[in-house]
Amino acid sequence: MTTTARSLPCPAQPPAPAPDSPAPGPALPTSGTLPADGGSHQRLTTSPRDAFRSVLCGDGVSRCPWALSTAGALADHDDEWGTPPSTSAEHFAALTLELVDSGLARWSQSARHGAWYLHMAQLRPERVALFDEDDVEDLLVTADLIRNRAKIEAVIHNAEVCQDWDATRWNELLAEAQVPPAEPPPQNALDLPDSTAASRRLSLTLRSHGIVLVGPVTAHRWLQRIGRAPGHVAGCFRAT
User: CA-to-CA distance for 70 and 57, rounded, in angstroms?
Assistant: First the structure.
C-alpha cells in the first residue's frame, strides 16, 4: 500500500524583535545611581569629571581625590594644607615648602617636608638667615632634600629678607596685593586654578619686597596652603 507523506506542523517561532526593541533583562541605570531593587550593578558615573570630586575613604572620612596619592600627600592634606598661619615663622615655612616643590609633580614631594624642617633649622627665618656657603654645600649632599642650589639659596635669601617680619607684616603684604578672602570650595578639583589675578599681583608684591623665586603659580599654591585661596573641594572634611 502506498502511503502519502504528511508534512508535520512546525512549532510556532517567536516573532523577531524589532530593531529598536530593548534586549530582555533588567535595564541598567542611566542616572548614576544604583538600581532600586538593590541589584549588584556597579555605579555608573555620569561624567569623567566625577572622578575629581571628594572621595569617601576607607576610614569613613571624605577627602579631596588627590589626598591618597601618597602617604606624604595624605599627611599634608589632613594636617597642613589650607591651615592659616598664626606666626611669621609659619608664613615663611609655608612659602618655603611651595618654593622648593615648584616645578615638580604635585604632592610627590610631600613626604620630604619634614626633612626641610629637620635640616633647615625648623624653617625659622631668623635661623635660616644665618646659613652660609658651607651649609649650602652640606644641604646639596643631603639625600632627604631636593638638591637644587638655586632653590636652597633662594630660601636662605628669603629668610634674610623676612627674618624681622611679624605675622602682621605678612598680612599687610597680602592686603597690598589685594588678595581677596577665600571663595567657597568648588565641587570638582579640576576647577581649582593653577594661578589667579591675585596670585600674579602677589608675586609682583613679594618681588618688590625682596622675596625671590616665587612666581604666580607658587604664590597661588602658597595662598592655598595658608587658606587664603580654595585648596580643597566641597565635601572634603578639610573644606571650609
Answer: 14
Collect all residues with Cβ–Cβ distance below 8 Å to 111 and sequence separation of at least 6. 70, 71, 72, 75
Are 82 and 231 contacting, i.e. CB atoms less than 8 angstroms apart? yes
Rounded Cα distance, 135 and 27, in Å: 68
Question: β-strand 62-63 against 55-56: which pairing, if any?
Answer: antiparallel
Percentage of the chain surpassing pLDDT 90? 78
Three-class DSSP category at 62:
strand
Q: How far is CA 172 from CA 92, 113, 161, 205, in A?
A: 14, 27, 15, 11
Phi and psi for 23 in degrees, rounded to 5? -65, 150
Q: Which three cell numbers stand for residue 126?
A: 631668623
Q: Choose between 187 and 106: higher pLDDT.
A: 187
Please give the Cα distance from 185 to 49 (Å, whole number).
Answer: 16
| Whether the Cβ atoms of residue 217 and residue 199 lie closer than 8 Å to each other | yes
Evaluate if pTM is beyond 0.85: no
Burial grade of 46 (CB within 10 A; 0-12, 13-18, 19 or more): exposed
Q: What is the C-alpha separation between 93 and 225, in angstroms, rounded?
A: 10
8 A C-beta contact, residue 123 and residue 93: yes
Q: How far apart are CA 88 and CA 232, in angstroms?
A: 24
* 23-61 pLDDT tens trace: 444 443 333 343 444 443 345 457 889 999 999 999 999
